[in-house]
Amino acid sequence: MFACLIGKWITMETVMRIDCEEITLCETKFTGEELNRFLKHWINGGSPRLKTFYAAVGTDSTFQLFDGIENTRIEEDKDYQAKHGKYKLTFMRWYQIKRNDGVTAAVEFAFNFSRNRYFLQFVIWPDEHGNT
Questions:
Q1: Which residue ranges does the record assign to the Sdz-33 F-box domain (predicted)?
Q2: pLDDT by 10s per residue, the chain, length 132
């Protein structure tokens, strides 16, 4: 796990080099274009161990996020329980994307009222056998 409470110094290049299952970043300066680059990196096989990515961002940049990325908008709510059981995320009005090898991820911008910020939530959904 990699976590950083004040992530203004972190670049997207640094994030793409982190090799772990969970990345949590608060107070980042990532733009929609940078997050789009990260998703394309993951789709093409980058960060293969990553299971969850949670990053504070300034605005909901959904349109920039999915530029050039095939996605499916999902209207039903879905809960994600972290493998280690420390937290649960609820996805509402989220998007599904697939990596080139068929692994499925959920992506959502969620507003955190207590922090007055948007967060990008990204998780790998388990397959029919429960594998992520």
A1: 7-54
A2: 899 888 888 999 999 999 999 999 988 888 889 999 999 999 999 999 999 999 988 777 777 899 999 999 988 777 766 554 566 667 777 899 999 999 999 998 887 777 778 888 898 877 665 655
Helices (H), the chain: 12-17, 32-43, 62-65
Contact 120, 107 (CB under 8 A): yes
Closest residue by Cα to residue 93 from 80, 81, 110: 110
Buried b / exposed e across 44-72, counting CB within 10 Å, b at 16+? eeebeebbbbbbbbeebbbeebbeeeebe
Is residue 15 classed as helix, strand or coil in its secondary structure?
helix
Residue 25 β-bridge partners: 4, 55
43 close to 96: Cβ distance less than 8 angstroms: no
Could you tell me what percentage of the chain is helix, strand and coil, using 3-state DSSP and rounding each to the nearest 5?
15, 35, 50
Query: Is the Cα dihedral 127, 74, 72, 51 positive or negative?
Result: negative
